[in-house]
Amino acid sequence: MIKKIQLPLQTMNLVIGFMVWVILSSLISFIREDISITIQQAAWITAIPVILGSILRVPIGYYTNLWGARKVFIVSFILLIPPVYYISIADSFIGLVIGGLFIGIGGAVFSVGVTSLPKYYPKERHGFVNGIYGAGNIGTAITTFSAPVIASRIGWSSTIQLYTILLALFILANIFLGDKKEVKVRTPIIQQIKSVYKSDKLWLFCLFYFVTFGSFVAFTVYLPNFLVTNFDLEKVDAGIRTAGFIAVATFLRPVGGWLADRYHSLILLMYVFGGFTLAAILLSFSPSIQWYTVGCITIAACAGIGNGVVFKLVPMYFQKQAGIVNGLVAAMGGLGGFFPPLVLSTVYEMTGHYAIGFMALSQFALVSFVLAVWMYYQDKLSLSYQLMESSPLGMMVTDRYGKIMTVNPAFTELTGYSYEETVGNNPNMLSSGQQSKKFYEDMWEKLTNDGFWQGEIWNKRKDGKNYLEWLTISAIQDDAGQTIQYAGVFSDITNTQSLQKQNTNNL
What we know:
Layout: H1 6-21, H2 23-34, H3 39-55, H4 57-67, H5 69-88, H6 93-102, H7 105-108, H8 110-116, H9 126-134, H10 138-154, H11 156-177, H12 189-196, H13 200-231, H14 235-262, H15 265-284, H16 289-317, H17 322-336, H18 339-351, H19 355-380, H20 383-390, E1 394-399, E2 404-407, H21 409-415, H22 419-422, H23 437-450, E3 452-460, E4 466-477, E5 483-492, H24 494-506
Antiparallel strand pairs: 1-2, 1-5, 3-4, 4-5
Helix pairs in contact: 1-5, 1-9, 1-10, 1-11, 2-3, 2-10, 2-13, 3-6, 3-13, 3-17, 3-18, 4-5, 4-8, 4-17, 5-6, 5-11, 8-17, 9-14, 9-16, 10-11, 10-14, 13-14, 13-16, 13-17, 13-19, 14-16, 15-16, 15-19, 18-19
Membrane topology: Multi-pass membrane protein
Keywords: Membrane, Nitrate assimilation, Transmembrane, Transmembrane helix, Transport
Pfam families: MFS_1, PAS_9
């Protein structure tokens, strides 16, 4: 029972963490009425929480593997109560900056769930599960929508103090409902970093998340004040519009994970970054509120789907180092939300408009689009792909979960199944039923331990006829030594076997 409630519990924990994380950006318009703050200072106040919320994601991901999600959430929420209360009584720019720095812990807890929850589910569901957990981003929408409404009635200071009660309630919830027996991983953090830092995929994923999650955070903290100052909207109206942006991005995050479970992740990212590029260019022309809304909603949709896709890719390539890699990628995403508000406010003070800032976002997105295309076609045009196409031996490549990714022409000739009929299916489509369960268990045991299996196996062609093949299966590993694919090479030895039997009978 405890294990079954970890997904909803940890998702709600993330909701609370993100609600706290954006307190200042949601209420900055109210705070400026009581405390003298310039536009540039307001940008710093709303951006500061992102710093600790980003940097702490690396150690928090590591300690989640070491201690378990229950302890990390409890400690994080206890540490959040003092700075939240301190902000509620702050009366200066410095006070808000100090309190804002430490409420960054609320954003750092993101690393907990993406490290802990995959332990409870099969690998083929990790994209969707991480997407559901990531939907905890809705916490930013809840605060952005509700905090201004409450503050208009009881004041911003009392509104912030209400969050200490929420934190106390979830400390108790984790004490009683958190999983005390979560599987722990005790590999030293330095050893984990050394095993992954040379991987180009790690840094590409960091860039992709820098753009997708960074834009989500940046727009979340910058929109409330921007809509008030640039379009003269009411503070509550600006909060509602920002909440809409957050809601779109949040609800599409699990959709991104779901899509990544079914389609090629890099192709999905091409669409995501293409959409980012066009939307940012639109915003750079300082459009009316109607076109600005179109641009923002497009960015929200791309950010949500992109976030889900990136965190499907991470556990596929880095299983044993999931904690540290999740932390590094998540940290880069958080930092991606720190710089844009500052850049936009600086550009505005220097030029009187935001065009250069939005154009910079479009260029980052365009670079990411090109890199996603490059990664995709690098696989397509690799030497192994060319050899596979020309080999007389049947070849099949599956992902680590057993889904067939590609086959060569010789496979079609030997089995009768076309490329379209095969890709996306499981190799058991060829099963003849002549091998026992123990046969396959022994095969996978050797493949897991040695990364290699070779032997005879009876399979079935599309026309229903059985044939004997000599099969070699090899595990394909990435730069971090993790198995990411399996390659099978086989030849039809049915006639050879029959000839040997005939010769034996003649003797």
